[in-house]
Amino acid sequence: MSPDVPAPGGPQQPDPEQWEQVLRAMLGPAADDAIAQMRAMGVDPSAMAAASGLPADPVALQQAMAQVQHMLATSGDEPVNWQMAHDLARQQAAQGGDPSLSPGRAREVVDALSVAELWLDAATDLPPSSGPARAWSRAEWVEATLPTWRTLTEPVAVSLSAALADALRPALGEEPDTALGLPGGFPGGLPFGDPAQLLRGLGSAVFGLQVGQAAGTLAREVFGTADIGLPLLDRPAPALVPTNVDAFADGLDTPLEEVRLYLALREAAANRLFAHVPWLRAHLLDAVAAYARGIEIDVDQLEEAVRSIDPTDQSALQEALSGGVFSPRTTPAQEAALARLETALALVEGWVDEVATAAAAPHLPHAVALREMVRRRRAAGGPAEQTFASLVGLELRPRRLRDAAAVWAHLAATRGVDGRDAVWAHPDLVPTSEDLDDPAGYDARRRAEVEGSADLDRALAEILDADGGTGPAGEDGPGGDGPDGDATDGGGRTGPVAG
Asked: Can you give the pTM of this predicted structure?
C-alpha cells in the first residue's frame, strides 16, 4: 500500500493543496509570502493542523473560519449583533411550536383584558392605558419587545466594549497575534485584520447570541408585556400570550378562564401604572444605564479567556468569552445601582400584586391561590432571567415582592386607594428599602423628612437675616434698603431704618 494512501480506519491525512487554499482564503494577499516563509523554515503548511490543534480536515476548518467571518461581518460596528439576536430569539420562541392564533383564541384574550379593566376601576384610581388590548403569539411578542431589550442591553454592551478595548490596548502592542495568546502567532498577521476589531466583532456576536437566547426563552415563559417588572413597550398597551397562559394553567386546580382573568388583571394593572407614572420607565432604564457606566474588566481573567479560545468550536468560543470577557467586576457604584433597580422592581410588582388581587377577590374564587402561585413563580425565576443575570448582572426577580406588597396594603389601609396611588406622583414619595423593612413607619418617616426640610429652611432664613439680607452690591435684596430709605423684611413690608 502506498504511504500516501491512508489505511482504512486510520487518521485522515491532510491534502497539502487543500491546506494551501485554506491559508490563501484566511490570509489573503499575504498567503504566498507566509507559505514561502513556512517552507523556508521547513514547515509543511498541511502540518499546521497537528501543530496548532486545528482539525486535520481543511474543509472543516474552512467552514469554521467561514462561520467566524460571517459572525464578524454581520456584527459591523454595533456593540450587539442585533440581526443575530433577532434570528436566534425567533428560533428559540418557536421551539415546542408557536402556531398563529385563531380569531376565537384572540377574542378570548381581548375579552379577558376588557373585563379586567372594568374590575380594576374599583381597585385603583389610575385609568386604563390608551393602547389597544392584544393577543400575541410568541414570535409577535419577540418582535414587539426586542426594541426594549436593545435599550436595556446596549448601554451595558457599549461600556463593556470600551472597557475591553482599554484593557487590551497595552497588551496588543506591535505583535497582537502573539499578545492574544495564539501559539507562535499567525504568519503574515491575524487572518481577520485588526485584533481589536476582531474582539469587538466577537463580543458583538456573543452579546447578540446571549440576548437572543434570553429574549427567545422569555417568549416561552412570559404572560404579557410587563410581568417581569420592566416595561417592554414604549407605549403601554396590555397584551397576553395565550400559549403561555394555557401552559401555566395546565395542571392547576383552577379553571383556565379564571387563570386567564387573573393574569389579565395583572397585565392591565401594570400597563395602567406605566402609562400614568411618566417617570417610572426612565427610572428603571436609568438604573440599568448607571450599572453600565461602572463596568470594569478583569484583565487577568480576560487574558485567560482569550488563550482558551478554540476558533473552530463556536460553542466553546461563546463559552470562553461569556465566562471571561463578559464577567466584569462589580463596583460599589454598580451595587448601588442594582440595589435601586431591585427596589424599584419590587415596588412595581408589589403594587401590581396588591391591586390585581384586590380587584380579583370579589370575582375569582381562587384569587389568593393564584396570587401565591405567581409569587412563587417569580421568586424562582427561569432560564431566561438567569441568562440575563450572567450577561449583565441584572436580576429581574423582585426579591422583596412580599415586602413591597405589604407597604402598598398598609398605604391603602391608612390613606385609601387614592392616597396609595398618589404616592407614585413623585419619585421622592415612593417607598424606599427602609420602608420595605418597616411598612408601618412610612408616614412617620415622611413627616420627619418634611420637618427636617422646614428646619433647614428656618436655618437658612436665620443666616440670611444675620447677614443683614444684603444682596449684591448696588442691589436691594430682602432686608436691604428700599426705594425710600426704609428697610424691607422678608415679606416685602417696609419700615424705618434702624439708626
From this structure: 0.70
